[in-house]
């Protein structure tokens, strides 16, 4: 079964930790990924060479790999060099910034996709986009999948309270490739809505795999709610 067919209608779980977080260790991320797969995840999204190598060895479902360099501008697998390093870990899909913003290495999105596919012809490319126009451009650039990952995280589209289902519906109606709904999806109802709007699969991260944020959110709700 192809990767695209394997993830159809499924839940992709993003397993990522950052900075000095106690979970930010490859063996921990691999264990989190294993737990997600045992729970039914159809694929894992993970970050960084070390984590990806550990996750790839730990699970037998497709892995969407990426890198993050910095925290502003184009920072999701921002260069062709980053993309090649991620592909070399054995992940089936490489996710990268699919916006029209300038890339650090000066290459266009199309040049990045072509360079990656030249070295790794069987690796799929997922373009993380913010707008419908970017999703269309990503298809023209050769992307195999489109994600709504950056909707609300660039100046081109305001952030919604919860997932941006409107842009998801627009993109699904505008492109002829699978669309992965991602970005502030946190509940079963969000997942149902995304699939109902045409998403090929849905990616959920912090709501499943980030206990620090989950704990903070729960405590914040307790302290702000009625006594």
Polypeptide structure, described:
- With 227 residues, this protein is an alpha/beta fold.
- The protein contains ten helices and eight strands.
- α2 packs parallel to α3, α4 packs parallel to α5 and α6 packs parallel to α7.
- Pathway: Amino-sugar metabolism; N-acetylneuraminate degradation; D-fructose 6-phosphate from N-acetylneuraminate: step 3/5.
- It is an enzyme of class 5 (isomerase).
- Converts N-acetylmannosamine-6-phosphate (ManNAc-6-P) to N-acetylglucosamine-6-phosphate (GlcNAc-6-P).
- Keywords: Carbohydrate metabolism, Isomerase.
- What spatial form do the alpha-carbon principal axes imply? globular
The count of helical stretches stands at 10
Main beta sheet: strand number and arrangement? 8 strands, parallel, barrel
> What is the share of helical residues?
40-55%
Structural class: alpha/beta
Query: Mean of residue pLDDT?
Result: 97
The span between the termini is 53 Å
Report the uncertain regions: none
The helix/strand series, from N terminus to C terminus, equals HEHEHEHEHEHEHEHEHH
Task: Considering the chains and any ligands shown, give keywords for the structure.
eight-stranded parallel beta barrel; single chain; 8 strands; 15% strand; RibuloseP-bd_barrel; 227 residues; alpha/beta
Nutshell version of this structure?
The chain is an alpha/beta fold.
Layout: helices, strands, pairs:
Layout: H1 3-7, E1 11-15, H2 26-38, E2 43-47, H3 49-58, E3 63-66, H4 80-87, E4 93-97, H5 109-119, E5 124-128, H6 132-141, E6 145-147, H7 165-174, E7 179-182, H8 188-196, E8 201-204, H9 206-209, H10 211-224
Parallel strand pairs: 1-2, 1-8, 2-3, 3-4, 4-5, 5-6, 6-7, 7-8
Helix pairs in contact: 2-3, 4-5, 6-7
Keywords: Carbohydrate metabolism, Isomerase
GO molecular function, one term: N-acylglucosamine-6-phosphate 2-epimerase activity
Catalytic activity: an N-acyl-D-glucosamine 6-phosphate = an N-acyl-D-mannosamine 6-phosphate
């Amino acid at each position: 079964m192809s990767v695209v067919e394997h993830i159809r209608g499924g839940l992709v779980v993003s397993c990522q930790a950052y900075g000095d977080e106690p979970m930010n260790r490859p063996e921990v991320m691999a264990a989190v990924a294993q737990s997600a797969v045992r729970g039914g995840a159809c694929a894992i999204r993970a970050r960084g060479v070390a984590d990806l190598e550990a996750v790839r060895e730990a699970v037998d479902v497709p892995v969407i790999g990426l890198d993050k360099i910095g925290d502003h501008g184009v920072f999701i697998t921002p260069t062709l060099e980053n993309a090649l390093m991620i592909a070399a870990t054995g992940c089936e899909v490489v996710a990268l910034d699919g916006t029209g913003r300038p890339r650090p290495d000066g290459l266009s999105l199309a040049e990045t996709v072509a360079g990656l596919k030249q070295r790794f012809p069987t690796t799929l490319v997922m373009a993380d986009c913010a707008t419908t126009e970017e999703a269309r451009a990503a298809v023209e650039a050769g992307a195999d999948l489109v994600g709504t990952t950056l909707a609300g995280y660039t100046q081109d589209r305001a952030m919604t309270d919860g997932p941006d289902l409107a842009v998801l519906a627009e993109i699904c109606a505008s492109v002829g490739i699978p669309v992965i709904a991602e970005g502030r999806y946190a509940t079963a109802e969000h997942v149902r809505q995304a699939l109902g709007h045409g998403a090929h699969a849905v990616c959920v991260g912090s709501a499943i795999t980030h206990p620090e944020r989950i704990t903070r959110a729960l405590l914040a709700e307790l302290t702000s709610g009625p006594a």
